Every structure is written in C-alpha cells, then in structure tokens.
Amino acid sequence: MGYDTAAKTDPESVVPEEFGGMWFLKDELGTEELGLSILELEPDGKGKEHDETQTDQEEIYYVVEGEIDVDLTDREETVTLDSDEAIRLDPEESRQLHNRGDERAKLVLVGAPL
Known about the structure:
By secondary structure, the chain is mainly beta. 4% of the residues lie in helices and 40% in strands. It is built from 1 helix and 8 strands. It has one helix at 26-29; strands at residues 20-24, 35-41, 58-65, 68-72, 77-81, 86-89, 95-98, 105-112. The strands form 2 sheets. It has a 5-stranded antiparallel β-sheet. Strands 5-4-7 form a 3-stranded antiparallel β-sheet, with no helix packed on it.
C-alpha cells in the first residue's frame, strides 16, 4: 500500500492523562526515518528535559493550540511559542517543554532521522 493512516488514540499515551498525554505515531504510520508525536500538556505541565545527541535527530515542535515555553536549558533561554508557531532544534540542543499558560496546550512533534 502507498500510504498508512493513524489516529492520535491508536497507540497508548506514554504520559498520564492527568498531565495531558503523549502519543507516538511512528509505528502506526510505519515510518522508517521520521518520528511523529502528539503532545498535550495541562497548565503547568512539563515535558522531559532532553537532547537528541545519541540519536542525532533534529526536532520540530509545532503548537496547534495554546502557548508553550521551550526552555533551552544549556543556554538558560526560553522561547515562547503561540498557536501556529514552530521551532526547529538541533540534536545537541538541550530542551524542556513547559505549559505556563492557563489552557491545555497541544503540539505536533516531528523528528528525523531516526
């Protein structure tokens, strides 16, 4: 088949519902070199601080709803993204997502190569 489809709810969330949710769609879509995830964070919710130096994967975060802070922890700098804004991060950039707003935030996360 020349295409695959998936819904956010096809895989189990790797984040407890009380914090929002995170769904990895790579396996459901059968991708080999591209990762796609949906992340939802409740107010004051945080993602895991990390970098991608071991995987050499650059990532793009696109905010669908809400506002999100991308804390660039090694730089001690924060980039705030509103709905319809995106950021691309080099693999070695240490980052942590934080929803400091009053509404649930929803993001699409893309990473390659895997």
